[in-house]
Amino acid sequence: MDCGIFTSKTILLFLSLIFWAAGAVLAYVGAYVIKSYDNFDSFIQDKYTLVPAAIIIGISVVMFLFGLLGCCSTIRESKFGLSFFFLIIMAIFAAEITALVFSFIYQGQISGDLERSMNGTFEKYDGQGTETKGVDYLQQQLQCCGVKNYTNWIGTAWYTSHNNTVPVSCCKNSTAQCTGRLDQPDLLNVEGCEPKLTRLLQDVWGYAMLVILGFAIIKFFGMLSVCVITCKSGSRRSGYQPLYA
Known about the structure:
Layout: H1 3-39, H2 51-76, H3 79-107, H4 110-123, H5 130-142, H6 157-161, H7 193-234
Helix pairs in contact: 1-2, 1-7, 2-3, 3-7, 4-7
């Protein structure tokens, strides 16, 4: 068998076999991104930020559906099947590049968007509402206090109506010793939530972008392999050559 044909078939078979694994990984990444945003939805008001995650999940579904097609078309050297498989790979490749572009664009907007939405949410903190639960969860999970730092609570409605104290969710440990007074900084988490949440979301997007980039590179070589097999097969008398020949 021609070395180019053998190598191209091997690449395509490998690509077909990892379609399911790739789909599972991308589905996990997309779900993880959505879950990360869902935990802090009180602070993220722009729904367009979930577009990349939705694209990733859509890609994973396509991968599961068309993995078998690529495998059968490669073994049989079906020109029609390989052409259709090429179009599928190209569409997924384009979608992955789109997701990367959206990720790059939004990464630069995370800090500004978060600061604006968090300032409004922290102002609405009253100890009972939905915003209160979101703020408490955020401060407890990230071990932070306030937007930029714990002094951001000064001047808020909660601070002035509760004897100049911050919420107990700012405390390092839920003990009776911590009352939320600012003269007890050793008992409080003094770092702000906005810097910590920004780093967390950037880490999530960085992980997602690396995964997408890796699969995009595989798709690129897959498209080249389809071209090689199609061209070589067209120049042979026989249109069928099994992989084990």
